[in-house]
Amino acid sequence: FLDKMAASVLLALLCLTAEVTLSAGSNKCVARNFGHDSVVCECNSTYCDSVGSATLPPLGQFSSYLSSKAGSRLEPGQGQVRVKSSGADLRLTINPYQKYQKVKGFGGAMTDATAINILSLSAGVQDQLLRQYFSSEGIGYTVVRVPMASCDFSTRLYTYADTPEDYNLDNFTLAPEDINMKIPLLQRAQALSPRPLSLLASAWSAPAWMKTNGALTGKGSLKGQPGGKEHKSWAQYYIRFLEEYAKYNLTFWALTTGNEPSAGEMTNYSFQALGFTPEEQRDWVALDLGPALKASSYPHTHVLILDDNRLLLPHWAKVVLNDVHAAQYIHGVAVHWYMDSVVPAEISLGTTHDLYPEYYLFGTEACAGWNPLDRGVKLGRWDRAEKYAHDIIEDVNYYVVGWTDWNMVLDQTGGPNWVKNFVDSPVIVDAKRDVFYKQPTFYSMAHFSKFLWEGSQRVGVSPSKETDLEYSAFIRTDGSVVLIILNRSSLVIEFEVWDPTVGYIPFSAPAHSLLTLAWNTH
Ligand SMILES: *[C@@H]1O[C@H](CO)[C@@H](O)[C@H](O)[C@H]1NC(C)=O
Ligand SMILES: *[C@@H]1O[C@H](CO)[C@@H](O)[C@H](O)[C@H]1NC(C)=O
Ligand SMILES: *[C@@H]1O[C@H](CO)[C@@H](O)[C@H](O)[C@H]1NC(C)=O
Ligand SMILES: *[C@@H]1O[C@H](CO)[C@@H](O)[C@H](O)[C@H]1NC(C)=O
Ligand SMILES: *[C@@H]1O[C@H](CO)[C@@H](O)[C@H](O)[C@H]1NC(C)=O
Fold first, then answer.
1. Does residue 15 lie within any of the structural domains?
2. What is the sign of the dihedral through the CA atoms of 150, 152, 156 and 158?
3. pLDDT tens sequence across 54-76
4. Model-wide pTM > 0.85
5. Which residue, of 100, 233, 371, 517, has the fewest CB within 10 Å?
6. Where do the Glycosyl hydrolase family 30 beta sandwich domain residues begin and end (predicted)?
7. Which ligand has the shortest distance to the CA of 187?
8. Are 500 and 5 in contact (CB under 8 A)?
9. Residue numbers of the domain that contains 179
């Protein structure tokens, strides 16, 4: 019996190798090992690995893209969809009639640090790097979060209105960081992108003179009460920001009510923060921000509340969204990924969606290397890629419509960051050598961002038996299906996918791998 089973497994493997052929024309990863569990891919002005535009084969065939701890990086393959089941123990059945949320998009943040690092490279390498994120040969980022003024990933502390008592914001002015660095890079990114970028603005701190503690850092909130002059000026600050960026042809899809309001509310925070309770945020939106936006030249800008960890849900959403005066101005709830492992997605994201299905959930910040026990840049760490993929799959399976990485580009120390809060990033520059390294997390993002265009709709997937594989499936606007599968560890050795509209796809995800399968349905 055992021999027979071994033989059939061997046969199945042989069939697979024969069937999945590598497609030509893609640039392979120039791998470099820095002594961690996997590798980075090195890029310069003339060379960078890429899978091109990833168009799908005709009906009856499927595309596969595989990344793994063993060193595959979006390795492309193609195979035949079969009319008969392979008899695999585990079958993932696509249910196209079970429809869930539609995707908005994926991306990262244009922090001061990101801009400084991109501009530390020669012009040719800068272009190569921007193409990697934004062009159709790259990984298709469409969402860019733009910090309003300084945050920890800046080299100095500033806001756009640092003149004391400037309630009318007469002296509001963008910073050199915006004018000389972030704005030109955003314009270049937009020029490379086949789709309009969805820009998202978040502020870390209000000017010191508007705040109870008179400083950008530490524990402090706006002086006075919602409806009062500080709260009104702070709402106008957002409008002035939108106006100034519009002068450079950059318009915003959305803004958040402020980065991590719990930080400045509850702790003596070491970097820029502005405290809000959910009650104060509710009233500020209802009395100040909402009406100001409605009366501005940008009344269709989306407003996302929270912009903080999901452990605050569903409480935060209940306080704000149960109030019709605030809720009328709000479109979504923004979540950060820190401490996700201690808060089940079902009771935070799932419950919030069930209570307020008309408000979307959106991931606005995540990064590796933030945990004090495992801090900073680690070149080539595959487990960080798995953490990204795990979190994205969990989020989208609980109604999140987009996921935004934090700094798009950092240096080898994980900065610059004025308070030394160094973290990791999917792209790390080595300015001395004029190259950049694409980390395993870059490919984690790619497995989603390159394939799940705006409007892709999540559909049902049912496993024939219990499995440790993590997965999520989508139907894109052209009817093609995208299935993303993460294998962090499992006892299963092979599986097949059944899409009743096209047939059976046998496959085997290697140990510690991330897989995107895609096929046409007509
Ligand atoms: C860029 O990298 C490729 C591949 O490693 C190498 O062949 C080429 O010489 C490099 N070009 C420059 C300008 O360093
Ligand atoms: C603020 O702007 C006014 C003119 O609008 C100017 O006279 C003044 O010097 C500015 N103050 C500062 C501190 O920049
Ligand atoms: C502004 O952007 C639009 C499309 O994104 C483009 O058609 C137009 O030429 C741009 N205008 C300027 C002044 O750059
Ligand atoms: C807050 O932290 C700063 C240093 O980050 C320290 O100088 C200050 O004394 C602290 N304030 C309080 C009230 O603990
Ligand atoms: C997933 O990885 C494990 C090792 O971590 C491996 O034993 C298993 O075969 C893989 N699962 C699938 C479905 O390929």
1. no
2. positive
3. 999 999 999 999 999 999 999 99
4. yes
5. 371
6. 455-517
7. 3
8. no
9. 104-451
